[in-house]
Queue: 3 jobs
Job 1
Amino acid sequence: MSGARARRTLRAFGVPAGRADLRELGYALVGPLPGLLGVALLYPVLAVALVLSVTHLGLPLLAAVLTAGRGIGAVHRRLLRGLLGEEVPAPPSPAAGGGAALRARLTDGASWRTLAFVLLAAPLSLLVLAVTVGLRLYGLAGVLYPLWWRSVSADGHRGLSLGTLALDTVPSSLLVALAGLGVLAFAGWVGRRLLVLTRHLGRVLLGPSRLSERVRDLEERRAVVVHDSAMTLRRIERDLHDGAQAQLIAVTLALASARSRLDRLGPDGTIPAADLSRGKELVDQALGNARTAVGDLRDLVRGIHPPVLDTGLDAALETLAARTGVPVRLRTELPGRLPEEVETIAYFCASELLSNAARHSGAELIELTARQSAGLLRLVVRDEGRGGAVLLPGTAGGGSGLSGLAERVRAVDGILRVDSPAGGPTAVTVELPARPGVTT
């Protein structure tokens, strides 16, 4: 029997067979503590606050209950994250201080949802403990019954009895062992579903509302867009200052010097040959600087919106594939033009990902696939290289490389996923909304 199958068999009978199972067992043991604390502190105070809620004394007391519930809810969130692997973000806190703050706390939906979880957590966590620990111990005792039944003496016979039926023979002890296996399997099945319910209640009651999550997500995206725009303007300013501006200043100085040379007249009223030759050299130099400035400006414009996109994303991807130093197998299914912002970000994503694969993967062939269907553009860059690419979480607007791409993709409601185990292969998937007007 393989190791994975053995673990599944053990898990089916409620026996911990891995770190996740041990963490779940740890949650069953520790989870009742904040639940019982909530019962001991909040139930009586909440009852008094509800009775006094018709007076001025009840409202501050009720607000204090909500605040304490938030504190106990934070403990529950840490347990869910640390032991069950359930990441539940904290909801935004209501304003603090003053009469308006009291009203804000009493009308804060997140505080009431957290209080509901704290009050429900006590009986639910005790039920998890009873099933996960108590019922498993009961089943384990049954499984081991053939080993210890002879050491128990009751009513003049060995072993236990079920009513008037004595379980004092080897066959009956084996039947008890089978029943114990059934109890273990039942305890494991019920325990897993109770933990699923706990996770679900944690997400719904302890986390922010969908509207709050959407607002926070939009704020983060706005920060990314604003930072990216600022960086783009800064880059344009730097490129203009260091490139085109410097070249145009050189053109101006060269032309001024040439003009002063050509203004010099000899005794016979003609321009000396040396000045004429030098003036031509200066004009040629100015012409070269002007051409360099034009090239710099063309590159700058290409970095803002690549002209190759004027003929469509499929043609732009073909150009990118041809320019990559490693052979690229390109597959495109793009029936029509996409919104301009989607084509632009898809082009830059493909450019960055192809460049990364060519420089770091060591692969001899890169696959680039672009498909549009059901209002979604899916871009996949895959290679058979060394793997090990990691998408590190970054702060808003502060990412570079894959994290920077992920932030830009997320700013238009897109998703970037990286699948790159050590040793390869690597597949980076970018999904962008492709319906006109979706990202505006």
Note: The chain has three domains: 3-206, 213-304, 309-433.
Job 2
Amino acid sequence: MHKNENNKDNLKNIRFILGVVSGKGGVGKSTVAANLSRVYQKQGLKVGVLDADIYGPSMDTLFEDAALPTVQGDRVIPAQVEGIALMSVAYFHKGREANVIRAPIANQIILQFLHEVEWGALDLLIVDFPPGTGDIQITLMQQAPFSGVVIVTTPQNLSLIDVRKAAQMCSQMGVPLIGVIENMSYFRDPQTGKTHRLFGEGAGEKLAREFHIPLLSQVPLDPALQQKKHASKAFEEGAEKIFQNLEDEKVREINTEDPYHFSIKWLDGKKSLYRLSDLQRHCPCVKCSKNRENVRVHPETELMQLVRVGRYGLQLTFNKGCSEGIYPFSLLRDLDR
């Protein structure tokens, strides 16, 4: 059984760490995180949820009647609810007034939640990221060995502005993008059965295409989802795809053929050969993605270093041109179709 390799503390006893990210508030990210955890718990997995939104925690509302966290020596025992281990700053804050906390203190709280909470042996720890792309998000990705992140958006194209930034941040930090969940995708009239796209459509598919990741599910706008007994059903399909991605090993072998080429042998037996100069045309870094027509390609580009970034992709260092991008295996496979 695969486990994250982290010698700092008991995070090493967690098999997978999954981030739920949006970059934008109001898209239902916390609802997605909560209901994914319910799906996995019902499937028999040992699950924990870390509410990393220091300024606007909501997990205490989404999970009611939790047995509160306790302190044992220098360790904190997380709250327990519905068979799920849960940690949120809401449990240590009186009332619902605003959390006025400076960034260095917020970062320290995140570090304590990661390294001083007795999470125990978990199959999956789900981290509900705060909106934005600031210090807390960077601290999380530097301090925890994420197996991957799920990007949450709504169907509105307007939401893509911030959500895209969050996805780019994850890519730059070398955290695998597993897929997109589009929340509040549609409303189905219970009387007529007719589907209404109240917030437009297409943002989830557009984001998935842009980052070469799958659209995992489209979750409806449904009042019944606010009821615990119904909520998880809408997330079962996406949850299955996420966990399959976490467990899947896509690449069997990577070889440097000569200074100008390398090859990948995939698990399905297919072998792909890549010329470095051709690959540079598709550099996925933010700068090259925005100015694709101005990307300079050097015919005699050589490979200085090849580093595998988990099960996500490859970090390639060239002797010429841009070496900032992390090339997802999904992109590399698409380039050889």
Note: The chain has two domains: 10-247, 251-334.
Job 3
Amino acid sequence: MRLKNKVAVITGGGSGIGRATCLKFTKEGAKVVVADFNETAGKETIEMLKEIGGEAVFKSVDVTDYKQVEDMVNFTVETYGRIDTIFNNAGIALGKPLLELDPEAYEKVVKVNQDGVYYGISFAGRKMRELGIHGTIINSSSVFGFLANANTFSYNASKGAVRLMTQTAALELAPYGIRVVGVAPGVVNTPIYDPVKALGRESEYTHKQMTKRFTPPSDIANVVAFLASDEAYAINGSTILVDDGYASYK
């Protein structure tokens, strides 16, 4: 078990990549704090973890509220005595042409995808430094943080920002033995794409992936678990593409 006795906080743990990562971390021996704004979904994840013998607790959080993120980190330490990993995974998407994008909609995406990551890095980093823990902070970017994509201006902007936030935080936190890394999924089989499936438009999104399918969330979770492990000690400041070749598409 690569993560035995480690304590991890996973935001957006109620569904998709977050839930898959909670399951993977549990199987690897970690104690997990499932953090999500959706209490019903989060507690469903908790039940799944307990069914496989995991130790986990739920914490309600709105990642756009810095005080709630601080409380989440403090809750983790109060519950388990430490925090080894945080996966800043919570995110939302919005498809709308740039010239039709209003400031409120733009800011909503940025607050979740970018500000939420900043709060997670900041408060987890402070707590790890305070406790002398050589932990790992993992941030969720996207292949669309590497590539331009029409009609997703706010999403692209936020995910591109996460890449540089990861690099900058890695530089600043390295002296404390804290690694900061990122993961950049391609098109993943999560609830974000449910409307696409309902319209039978899957191929419009999967045709640039080499297997021509949605990537299972568990594939992303496998990489996140590796990044959280001691085996990845030499990976720092990097954002790893897990995009089924999307970025290589010609």
Note: The chain has one domain: 7-242.
